[in-house]
UniProtKB/TrEMBL annotation, chain A:
It is found in: Cell membrane. One of its GO terms (cellular component) is plasma membrane. PANTHER family: ABC TRANSPORTER PERMEASE PROTEIN (PTHR30193:SF42). The chain crosses the membrane at residues 57-79, 91-111, 138-163, 184-209, 248-270. GO terms for biological process: transmembrane transport. Pfam families: BPD_transp_1 (PF00528). The keyword Cell division does not apply. Its main location: membrane. It comes from Salinarimonas soli. It is a multi-pass membrane protein. Residues 54-267 form the ABC transmembrane type-1 domain. Keywords: Cell membrane, Membrane, Transmembrane, Transmembrane helix, Transport. This is Sugar ABC transporter permease.
From TrEMBL, chains C, E:
The gene is ugpC. It is found in: Cell inner membrane. It comes from Salinarimonas soli. The lineage of its organism: Bacteria, Pseudomonadati, Pseudomonadota, Alphaproteobacteria, Hyphomicrobiales. PROSITE patterns: ABC_TRANSPORTER_1, ABC_TRANSPORTER_2. This is sn-glycerol-3-phosphate ABC transporter ATP-binding protein UgpC. Its main location: membrane. One of its GO terms (cellular component) is ATP-binding cassette (ABC) transporter complex, substrate-binding subunit-containing.
From TrEMBL, chain D:
Belongs to the binding-protein-dependent transport system permease family. Keywords: Membrane, Transmembrane, Transmembrane helix, Transport. It comes from Salinarimonas soli. GO terms for biological process: transmembrane transport. Its main location: membrane. It is found in: Cell membrane. Residues 86-278 form the ABC transmembrane type-1 domain. It is a multi-pass membrane protein. The chain crosses the membrane at residues 12-33, 92-110, 122-142, 154-177, 198-223, 259-277. GO terms for cellular component: plasma membrane. This is Carbohydrate ABC transporter permease.
Length: 276, 393, 365, 293, 365
């Protein structure tokens, strides 16, 4: 146990420091300490691909965060309404998590294909034609639809576990207080589930920041570079471009906002512990 | 002498490739005391690279691994992690038998040989659709210019002139391996790729090449696929008239039972300047610090270039042998064209043998951005291309 | 006095529970229970722990689905209605405070839902908080309150609202005697002012006696007696009610009635003055005597001879535990008197206040 | 006495039910559509797939793709499909799952209930760890494992899964435990239970839903992991996903979509079974009656 | 009687709390509190809701980290020790039952932790369950119990164990009067038998009076008086204790002492017979009178003239709320008497039982 934790600490503390250090070098295939100052950062910020990546991440991040949280919670709430076939519904909502994205990415390509897929069906119904994955202005939404499909199940599960921890008496009190179901969820249950939402938030945002597989599987960053994301930039630089230094610089830039936001947030939200 | 277990890491996993690997494995298992342990990871060099590097850093490298020869392995060689095969190359007279010589050059650093090339794949082919041209009522064109001329007719017949997958490497390949060589010419191309001469990029020849690329950009609207083989299928069915893709596309045609010259046509080097880009695969051998293993590794390297293995392997893989002195058993018309060019020495190195992966990635990003951004002009991309070449190390 | 305050509004049954049955799985908790509560009445539910009081309140509130029977409120059959449509306010035995809201939030939440204007809400909350003495705590969350403070918040949450029926489940159990007495008075005052119907569970007999218009005594899911406090105290309908009501409880002497006298062991008492229809002769019977209805008589007066076993100080007076022919009898005596352990005394019960029960049916004679 | 009596009859088509089930059905369609396409594709022959309608059921049903995916697809020269890696995956999954959940839940428990110095810093580091793309840490991990002498062993892989699962799982457990009634801990301490006693006898049994969630996360993550599997295992211990990747991800040559789909579905079966089985752990009102608040 | 049972083991302080301070954040709840509990003593803690009783118990148990001070148990300084090493058993105000265990599991958990043999555990559990009348419930989980049943399980969980010190936080508050009386007797008996030290929080004055060897009255985190029940009742140390102890509570008359008499409004009373050191003359003073120490005198007898305001039946007797010169005075009278609202009576207090307080310091004179 203790050694595990030590290893984890070494890695999660040492790893970023190691990364930071090497972002000031010209490491290419192998990490090495040959300093080049801020060159990697200059190149990073001069790169169109990087700038596009960040914009995309912001767009995708907001949509997916809101979408996943809302949909995840609503689904969990529905499943919590003492329904029949709860197990079946839960498994249905969860199964996308179990399937490798290498292939489901392909399925979504097909489903969003203007001829083969849903857009084709919709056009058949007299709707306008659209081609989300090949339209630079729509591609992030296309990814979002698939991302939501894959990511919501897990969040729903976490929310469901949270809902199961809520005392029936609270429900009773709310019913006597004359609060409707929706209002009870919004003003009592959701606030009571703050810790659960915090967990979900971290899970979702870390997933967003690390977003990679989905993009590779569905668009490889295309069309053009219009669906590039930072994690893919990092991976492309490290493993595709054999430029570790560049990859590390990008990775560092990804971690900066995380550290800036997470550290104070953690102290605020969790720092004051209940027990002592 | 006891046999050594040779763990070989590669990314040949699909049906034909696996059959080819079996030939190599049979060679090792049958002709030496050693045994082949297969360690296949699909997904190409981008996936295999971190695995291989990790294993080397982690101190338990595979006995041999597939890699693109050239600049990419340079650092491993410099770090002294790879086995020097010079004595094998000398003993087997690789310098004389390997054709084109650029393949061996790509394996050579400071006069010492570090890898064993096994096959030749060429990137710069344009595939033409028999059914599409039939539907448009035209004969298959003989070169790029002819292709451009056929575009209005194709359009009228509702056929997408050029099928292009959505991935950056496909779109970049058209320029780097196709249009640049065919329009700007091999000399200009070499001085850019090999000598990193940015001025050439800014020059007139390349200017025309970028213009042509910009023109081609408009021809692929409506393909709407990601993978190259889906694009190939569009060509096969006649929905699209042409595709620019490596010789591996032939496997798709073959599987669908199509005949070269009838159902599909091929134009190496876009037909304008028929050169064959000779990329290919090579095997590297990490140092193991064990003389017995090292001996086995060298034995393996030698075996890979032996005529028997070359023939059996390349027949199975539908690639060309690296030795000029062997004959493939059955070849179709397109392969014939390739072999002819090879025999005539009209060859060029592959892009990755000349430029670093880093530069390659940057070029891919730039070209795909251009391809998908109609507002970007040929001038824009020319200048940015030049800057990347100038900065390339 | 119990009957004159609030009695003004008494009229037809306001809450009426008809043939109510409720089971948790195989455990049948309420067994065909009937009860009628008049409009504006303050009804106290008394009963041993686990007899089904909370379950009954939950059924009336509509919080648990009943197995059988009907619930009527204000002349409407609400059996299938949602709690919020029943016009009730409730204090839960387990409080059920909203843990993430401040005390203020807990109190005002129900009102906000009714879209009451902010200033009215504030006024009500402040008023209730003052009554319950939790004004300084308005900004705390329940987790930072003591047990009694939480209980007061729970009361407050019900009180702020205008409900037609209030269901209170042991609302004062965790409060100190002083505060409890104060709140008792406040509750009575509020009830008199508003004229709401109250159903109030308590284990505190003083609370029951002082607050109730009528008291219902429950046992194992069945109402044993429903009567005014005085009647319940003085004329319990059966042995159970007699033993249950009153603290310290009624002493029971099992004996026989014969010749107009009650015989216990070798002694006997004349039944003259007994208020019921005691038969002249009956096999077995039980005589119930409250401690305060027994006097320690000077020697020679007719009575039961007893031996003092224990003397318990109770603040205002003392409780003498005595032994009459092997049966325990407790007697309330003034603090001043002194009866050493083992001494023999004569007990003179006031027969006019005694209760006689049939030993078989346990019903009052 | 007329009118409603007894329990309210449950109308099947009440507004609430229509809304709840309607929404769930609708969402299920969104969720099942890709599955439909996958299953249908996996039952078609390649020529039929080439014809194009992805929604259409197969004209000619063939199970060959499934057979091939499971037992015949080649990985390099080994042609025994996914079956080859299956047991390896199981062997990797079980210790990784048990260890990662054990470590993270104990961490979460320690963080939520016991004061120790630096616990906040520890927590912050873990959370930041959750945001690092693991590929960035590849070389540090390799170096670390090498210096621990675990590189290349299955235990190295288990350690890696445990460590990378730690941030999210610790957070998950910590937040759940922190919302349990505090008095439960107090009562157990008075009852003489120590750190482990409280954890095993009190915390664990009342937190089953969150353990189910953790198991779902980890089974999914570990079972589907490909990257660590190839980097840290050897050819003879490659997990199933390496085979899956090899079947699906071939760069050159022909794509056998039907086999790919079948392989993916086959790989997903075990996690799916776990999801379904975990249902029992999502129980309701598990802390009912614990305290009054 | 209170002093003679259990008093056998009394010796030096067994639990001693020294200068204990505890703050929740900025709220200081215990303020340098000192208390010494003798070995085998039954100490009852009384105090208004929110005064810090539960907090004190938690500190003694070691469940919250104290801000300052020391805790000694059995001669050892346990300030920094774990709860399980302090030899305590505890009943939590909120019960804190293990929700996933059956009642049996809840009761046996502590014993299992001590590695007691199974058969002994079973025997103990059964015995305690019988005492608490929860035998039929042993296989239920807490969620399926009524409030009072839960509370009994909570008591049982403490009782099964052999602890040196028991900390009981309002253990009987949710039980009916009958059961409560029975359990009170059982607790007393157990305590007498085992000789453990008990610290017992209650709001029930009867419980306090009957169980306690000594009672500590707390207010705002400070001990106000620590004395035997009788002394506390008869000679409260200050105005707060006087007002707090006793239900219905002592009536307070504010006036002046002059010339050996107590003057209130226009009336006055002789102080003859007062047991304290009342000065002949003092500016302002307060006279405290318990309801049972006031008689309604026949007209003509010296006393205070009062007007009847309300008459509350209390079961055994009645409480007369009267007005004396604008001050409320309550008087306990027999049920038989009748005093209509508004009638005028003369109250004759027993000065020997009265209490006089300095109006400034509020201390007893
Ligand atoms: N976590 C907390 N944060 C802040 N204040 C608290 C906290 N817990 C308790 N308090 C306050 O400390 C005081 C003492 O609480 P405690 O629970 O000891 O009271 P108590 O004497 O047991 O009261 P009761 O009889 O109502 O149970 C109360 O005023 C309460 O509001
Ligand atoms: N969920 C349940 N499952 C089974 N039995 C239950 C359940 N809830 C309550 N009971 C049983 O029903 C009976 C009545 O419970 P209820 O809470 O109504 O009692 P109560 O009269 O309020 O008692 P108390 O005064 O102790 O609160 C009890 O015997 C209890 O054990
Ligand atoms: Mg109850
Ligand atoms: Mg308390």
């Amino acid at each position: 146990m203790a050694p595990m934790i030590a290893v984890a600490l070494v890695l999660f503390l040492g790893g970023p420091i190691w990364t930071l250090l090497h972002s000031f070098t010209d490491s290419r295939l192998l990490p090495r300490l040959r300093w080049v100052g801020l060159d990697q950062y200059e190149r990073l910020w001069a790169s169109r691909k990087w700038l596009v990546s960040i914009e995309n991440l912001a767009l995708y991040g907001i949509c997916s965060l809101v979408g996943t949280l809302v949909l995840g919670f609503v689904l969990a709430a529905l499943l919590d309404r003492k329904i029949r076939f709860e197990n079946t519904f839960r498994t249905i909502l969860l199964y996308p998590v179990a399937l490798s994205f290498i292939v489901t990415g392909l399925i979504w390509q097909w489903l969003l294909n203007p001829e083969l897929g849903i857009p084709g069906v919709m056009r058949g119904l007299g709707w306008g034609a659209f081609d989300p994955l090949n339209d630079p202005s729509l591609v992030m939404y296309g990814l979002g639809v698939a991302g939501l499909w894959q990511g919501t199940g897990l969040i729903m599960c976490i929310m469901l576990a949270g809902l199961r921890g809520i005392d029936d008496n609270i429900w009773n009190a709310a019913r006597v207080d004359g609060v409707g179901v929706v209002k009870t969820y919004l003003s009592i249950i959701v606030p009571m589930m703050r810790p659960v939402f915090a967990t979900a938030l971290v899970l979702i945002t870390s997933g967003i920041v690390k977003l990679y597989d989905l993009v590779v599987a569905m668009t490889s960053g295309g069309p053009g570079i219009s669906s590039e994301v930072p994690a893919k930039y990092v991976m492309d630089a490290m493993f595709g471009g054999q430029n570790l230094g560049q990859g590390f610089a990008a990775a560092t830039m990804m971690l900066v906002p995380v550290v800036v936001i997470v550290v104070p947030w953690t102290y605020l939200a969790f720092g004051r512990r209940k027990r002592g | 002498q006891d046999g050594v277990k040779l763990e070989v890491m590669h990314w040949w996993t699909s049906g034909g490739e696996a059959a080819a690997v079996r030939k190599l494995a049979d060679g090792i298992n049958g002709r030496t005391a050693h045994s082949w342990v297969d360690s296949a990871i699909a997904g190409g060099v981008d996936i295999a690279r971190p695995v291989i590097i990790s294993r080397i850093i982690g101190g338990s490298p595979p006995t041999a691994f597939q890699f693109n020869p050239g600049r990419q392995a340079l650092e491993l060689i410099e770090a002294g992690l790879l086995l020097d095969l010079t004595d094998v190359a000398k003993a087997q007279r690789w310098a004389e038998i390997v054709n084109p010589p650029s393949l061996l050059e790509a394996c050579t650093v400071d006069g010492r040989v570090y890898c064993a090339p096994v096959n030749i794949h060429s990137w710069n082919w344009m595939w033409l659709s028999g059914p599409a041209y039939e539907a448009a009522g035209l004969a298959m064109p003989a070169d790029w210019t002819g292709f451009l001329n056929s575009v209005p007719a194709l359009r009228k017949a509702g056929i997408t002139p050029l099928a292009m997958g959505g991935q950056a490497w496909q779109q970049a390949g058209l320029f780097n391996s196709g249009i640049a060589i065919a329009i700007a010419g091999p000399e200009a191309w070499l001085s850019v790729m090999r000598d990193r001469n940015a001025d050439v990029v800014r020059g007139e020849d390349y200017g025309r090449a970028f213009q042509a690329y910009a023109e081609a950009r408009t021809l692929s609207d409506g393909t709407g696929v990601q993978d190259w083989n889906q694009a190939t299928r569009a060509v096969m069915t006649g929905r699209a008239a042409a595709q620019f893709m490596g010789d591996w596309a032939q496997a798709e045609f073959a599987l669908a039972g199509k005949t070269a010259g009838v159902d599909y046509g091929c134009l190496p080097g876009l037909g304008l300047r028929p050169y064959l880009q000779t990329g290919g695969d090579a095997f590297f051998f990490p140092k193991q610090g064990n003389p017995a293993v090292e001996a086995a590794q060298k034995e393996m390297a030698a075996l890979m270039l032996s005529p028997e293995v070359q023939v059996s392997f390349n027949s199975a893989k539908r690639s060309l042998p690296v030795r000029g002195d062997v004959d493939l058993t059955t070849v179709n018309e397109c392969t014939r064209q390739g072999l002819d060019l090879l025999a005539k020495g009209r060859t060029l190195p592959s892009t990755v043998q000349l430029i670093s992966a880093d530069t390659n990635t940057q070029l891919n990003d730039l070209l795909t951005e251009f391809w998908n951004t109609p507002s970007m002009t040929a001038g824009d991309v020319q200048e940015r291309y030049a800057r990347i070449i100038a900065d390339a190390r | 006095m119990a009957l004159d305050s609030g009695a003004a509004h008494l009229d037809a049954a306001f809450v009426s529970v008809r043939d109510l049955t409720h089971s948790f799985g195989t455990v049948e908790v309420l067994k065909g229970l009937d009860i009628e509560v008049r409009n504006g009445e303050f009804l106290v539910l008394l009963g041993p722990s686990g007899c089904g009081k909370s379950t009954l309140l939950n059924c009336i509130a509509g919080l648990i689905e009943i197995t059988d029977g009907q619930i009527w409120i204000g002349g409407r059959n609400v059996t299938w209605e949602e709690p919020k449509d029943r016009g009730i306010g409730m204090v839960f035995q387990s409080y059920a405070l909203y843990p993430h809201m401040t005390v203020h939030g807990n109190l005002s939440f129900g009102l906000k839902n009714q879209r009451m204007p902010e200033d009215q809400i504030a006024a009500r909350v402040v008023r209730v908080a003052r009554i319950l003495q939790i004004e300084p705590l308005l900004d705390r969350k329940p987790g930072a309150l003591s047990g009694g403070q939480r209980q007061r918040v729970a009361i407050g949450r019900a009180l702020v609202r205008d409900a037609d029926v209030f269901l209170f489940d042991e609302p004062l159990s965790n409060l100190d005697a002083k505060l409890r007495a104060e709140l008792r008075v406040e509750l009575k005052r509020l009830h008199a002012g508003l004229g709401n119907t109250m159903i109030y569970v308590t284990h505190d007999q003083i609370e029951a006696m002082t607050l109730a218009d009528r008291i219902a005594v429950m046992r194992d899911g069945v109402i044993q007696q429903l009567a005014t406090p005085l009647e319940l105290y003085d004329r319990p309908a059966n042995l159970f009610v007699a033993g249950f009501v009153g603290s310290p409880s009624m002493s029971m002497l099992d004996g026989r009635i014969a010749g107009g006298r009650f015989h216990v062991g070798g002694q006997s008492l004349a039944l003259d003055g007994y208020e019921g229809r005691a038969p002249g002769t009956l096999g077995a019977a039980i005589l119930g005597l409250r401690p305060e209805h027994i006097a320690v008589a000077p020697a020679g007066v007719e009575g039961l001879s007893a031996v003092v076993e224990l003397c318990e100080p109770m603040g205002a007076d003392k409780l003498l535990w005595t032994d009459v022919e092997g049966r325990k009898v407790s007697v309330r005596v003034p603090v001043e008197t002194s009866h050493p352990r083992g001494s023999r005394v004569t007990l003179a019960p006031a027969m006019g206040k005694a209760s006689l029960f049939d030993a078989g049916t346990e019903a009052r004679l | 006495m007329s009118g409603p009596r007894g329990p309210r009859p449950r109308r099947v088509l009440s507004r609430g039910n229509v809304f709840v089930y309607g929404t769930l059905m609708l969402v299920s369609v969104y969720y099942l559509l890709p599955l439909w396409v996958m299953v249908m594709t996996s039952l078609k022959g390649l020529p039929e797939i080439r014809m194009g309608n992805i929604f259409a059921p197969p004209v000619e049903v063939t199970f060959q793709p499934w057979v091939k995916a499971w037992a015949e697809a080649c990985t390099g020269i080994n042609c025994d499909g996914l079956s080859r890696g299956f047991w390896n995956s199981v062997r990797i999954l079980i210790p990784s799952l048990v260890l990662s959940i054990a470590v993270a839940s104990v961490n979460g428990y320690a963080l939520s209930s016991w004061r120790f110095r630096g616990s906040e810093t520890f927590f912050v580091i873990l959370i930041v760890g959750a945001f690092i793309p693991y590929q960035v840490l590849l070389y540090p991990v390799v170096i670390l494992l090498r210096s621990l002498g675990l590189y290349g062993s299955i235990w190295g892989l288990v350690l890696v899964h445990t460590i990378f699962g730690m941030p999210i799982l610790t957070l998950l457990f910590r937040n759940y435990f922190a919302s349990l009634p505090e008095d439960l801990f107090k009562a157990a301490r008075v009852d003489g239970a120590g750190f482990w006693g409280i954890y095993l006898k009190i915390i664990l049994p009342v937190s089953l839903p969150i353990f189910a969630v953790a198991a779902i996360i980890q089974v999914t993550g570990i079972w589907n992991d490909f990257f660590f599997g190839v980097v840290f295992a050897r050819p003879e211990t490659y997990p199933m996903t390496v085979q899956l990747n090899n079947i699906v991800n071939s760069v050159q040559g022909v794509k056998e979509y039907n086999v790919n789909m079948a392989a993916t579905l086959l790989t997903g079966l075990l996690p799916l079974a776990v999801y379904f089985a975990s249902g029992k752990l999502f129980m309701r009102g598990i802390t009912a009656g614990a305290v009054k608040v």
